[in-house]
Design goal:
Its EC number is 3.4.16.-. Belongs to the peptidase S10 family. Keywords: Carboxypeptidase, Glycoprotein, Hydrolase, Protease, Secreted, Signal. It is an enzyme of class 3 (hydrolase). By secondary structure, the protein is of the alpha/beta class. It contains 15 helices and 16 strands. The protein has 2 domains: 378 residues, 3-Layer(aba) Sandwich (Rossmann fold); 33 residues, no CATH class. Helices cover 34% and strands 21% of the residues. Strands 1, 2, 3, 4, 7, 8, 9, 10, 13, 14, 15 and 16 form a 12-stranded mixed β-sheet that branches.
Length: 444
């Protein structure tokens, strides 16, 4: 744990005393600033205390119709250390997106048409979540805190006890989601009616296993013309388990410094925003704008935080979507390099509904990396690779394994619901219904 100066120690003590006043409660959102008038679903937000020094922030968006009977989905963004509300809710699957003028527009393909959506800023210190002690985080503490959150949250929202429950997330949530699922399954063991009634989980471009997946990265870079033949051969030679770490490091330096160029790693075919932002430039009605930049501006506004019932004393003025100083640089490096494939294999044996999808233009967690990860599981193929159409056009390719369905989404970057919302929505509906996506008709 980092040693604090006397001045900082005083502020931490003051923060701890103030945080004692925060309790888990059902705080309804009357209306968010800039929210459209024709909103008919309920929204709640607030804090759940995990420990005295940890408060996790949530946003519940109830289903737009039949909320009392539809399932509950918990969405987690990765990083580690990035906000599920700032990314997942506002930029991907939630009911609103932020416009350049600071107002909100309704998202046509929000996932709350199919489920009640619960977004959690985790681990503590991310987004609107807060911690009063500066300490490292890791996979185990994140999973256990999220499980403790769910149990306490269900006491505030008892109507969701025993409801069909699903997990979803992307990127480093490839760690968060299976690990939380494992905790839930273990605690549910022997219960005939568990209150956290986990039915399955959905992972997008997930970080799963560097060991089996890393060769897929330089394969992807080479196959898409981002690196030279020489650099590719050096990576094949040096970037292996028994290779030369120094030679591998030099090969990647050569690639990044002299070969790849100004490519957006999250979607290699879409130009990035300015100001060194990695977030893509999005297009709406002929006008372009940066979702990430506009979302940050919106979430920094005092009236927005007040509407969300945020304890503004705890949120830094330089609020960011990814908490680099507080979480990312202190997150366990051994955990980020570890494999979750054994956990995934264990969960496949419990007969949960499991989908993994991968955008084909993502260079951060490329399709080839995920395919290598899945191959390492050595699962029996039930339905071999086949195409699926959406709105009469080729949209995805699917392979169904024993206990797992893999979907490659054509032309999408790292955040599939952001780039291709209609296709992602159809995929989500298929996942919830556990209905196979039909093979695309053959054309001469």
């Amino acid at each position: 744990m980092e040693k604090l100066s006397p001045r900082n120690a005083f502020h931490v003590l003051l923060l701890s005393l103030l945080m004692l006043s925060i309790t888990a409660r059902a705080a309804e959102i009357t209306k968010l600033p800039g929210q459209p008038e024709d909103v008919r679903f309920a929204q709640y937000s607030g804090y759940v205390s995990i420990k005295e020094e940890k408060r996790l922030f949530y946003w519940l968006v109830e289903a737009s119709t039949d909320a009392e009977h539809k399932p509950l989905l918990l969405w987690l963004n990765g990083g580690p250390g990035c906000s599920s509300i700032g990314y997942g809710a506002f930029q991907e699957i939630g009911p609103f997106r932020v416009l350049p003028n600071g107002k909100l527009s309704k998202r046509q393909f929000s996932w709350n048409t199919e489920a009640n959506l619960l977004f959690l800023d985790s681990p503590s210190g991310v987004g609107y979540s807060v911690r009063s002690v500066v300490e490292p985080a890791g996979d185990n503490s994140t999973a256990m805190d999220s499980y403790a959150f769910l149990n306490k949250w269900l006491e505030v929202f008892p109507k969701f006890k025993y409801r069909d429950f699903y997990l979803a997330g992307e990127s480093y949530a490839g760690h968060y989601v299976p690990q939380l699922a494992q905790v839930i399954v273990n605690h549910n063991n022997g219960l005939t009616r568990p209150k956290i009634n986990l039915k399955g989980f959905l992972l997008g471009n997930p970080t799963l296993d560097p060991g089996s997946g890393n060769p897929g990265r330089y394969e992807y870079f080479w196959n898409h013309g981002l690196i030279s033949d020489t650099t590719y051969e050096n990576m094949r030679k040096f970037c292996t388990v028994d290779g030369d770490p120094e030679g591998c490091h030099k090969a990647w330096i050569e690639a990044n410094a002299n070969e790849i160029g100004d490519v957006n790693g999250y979607n290699i075919y879409v130009r990035p925003c300015g100001n060194n932002s990695t977030q893509d430039l999005m297009y709406r009605n002929g006008d372009d704008f940066c979702l990430e930049t506009d979302t940050v501006k919106y979430m920094r506004r005092k009236e927005v935080q007040e509407s969300f019932h945020v304890q503004t004393s705890y949120v830094p003025l330089n609020y960011t979507l990814c908490s680099e100083w507080n979480v990312q640089i202190r997150y366990s490096k051994s955990d980020t390099k570890s494999s979750v494939l054994p956990i995934l294999k264990e969960l496949i044996g419990t007969h949960l509904q499991i989908y993994i999808y991968s955008g084909t233009t993502d260079a951060t967690v490329p399709l080839s990396t995920t395919r290598r990860n899945i191959a390492a599981l050595k699962l029996k193929v039930q339905k071999k690779w086949y195409p699926w159409n959406h709105n009469d056009q080729l949209a995805v390719w699917i392979e169904v394994y024993e206990g797992l369905t893999f979907v490659a989404v054509m032309g999408s970057g790292h955040e599939v619901p952001m780039y291709l919302p209609s296709q992602a929505h159809a995929l989500f509906r298929s996942f919830l219904s556990n209905a196979p996506m039909p093979k695309a008709p053959f054309k001469q």
